Amino acid sequence: RGADGVRPDLAGRHVLVTAGGTREYLDPVRFLGNASSGRQGYAVARAALARGAAVTVVAANVALPEVAGARTVAVTSAAELRERVHEVAPSADVVVMAAAVADFRPQATQAYKIKKESAAPDSIALVRNPDVLSELVANRRPGQLLVGFAAETGGPDGGVLDHARAKLARKPVDLLVVNQVGAGLGFEVADNAAVVLAADGRETTIERSSKDLVAHRILDLVVEFPIGHGD
Ligand code: CTP
Ligand code: CA
Fold first, then answer.
1. How large is the ipTM?
2. Binding-site residues for CTP
3. For 3, which DSSP code?
4. Atom of ligand 1 nearest to the CA of 149
5. What residues are paired with 178 via a beta bridge?
6. Predicted TM-score (pTM) of this structure
7. What are the strands of the beta sheet with 203-210, ordered from one edge?
8. What are the strands, taking DSSP E only, across the chain?
């Protein structure tokens, strides 16, 4: 056990964590973004470090102090995040995609600030961003463990877990961490709660607790898998 009483069960492993939320710029000062603070991703990075891993954090617009001991790569847009993730992922034993990645970006980014007096655009044309996690699934190397996050509200066609199970079927990661968002949970709050869906159908509830504790519970599930090459 390390000085902090945590078992070094990720010693010798490289963990890549994405955190925060991407921004898609409309002009030099305006963007489409989301409310992800990066807190849960940073907590996973800290927990992985405490368990002996080498950690790379790809941080999208995170306004928090960097995680001491991790290598942090700052990114802004989904395109940039994608580029950095694909650079690092080949050497990562575990990839935790905690970042909220924009599904769409403006078709064009204006070089100059859009002025109030200019003809008002009646809509903003958007194009779809590539799904980084799906690309990781497609390029996964043996022994590499992939963890996705899903922020769900549920909808008229089903609840949070229905949507999450459908997402896992579309994106076959090893573990999908499901957060119910809204109702004082998830983004921008100190505590978190989750249900973790595993590829084999197992579902683990993580009761509401600090994001650090949630991070350790997630990694408890990660280390149950045979991670890395040939061991
Ligand atoms: N993700 C990604 N690339 C994207 C969008 C999402 O890698 N362009 C990742 C997220 O980091 C997260 C997982 O996919 O780990 C699920 O993201 P989420 O937004 O919940 O799912 P989507 O498949 O985008 O579906 P939807 O937004 O319609 O719920
Ligand atoms: Ca999405």
1. 0.99
2. 103, 113, 130-133, 149, 167, 171
3. T
4. 15
5. 150, 195
6. 0.95
7. 71-75, 54-60, 14-20, 94-97, 145-152, 175-180, 191-198, 203-210
8. 14-20, 24-27, 30-32, 54-60, 71-75, 94-97, 104-106, 126-128, 145-152, 175-180, 191-198, 203-210
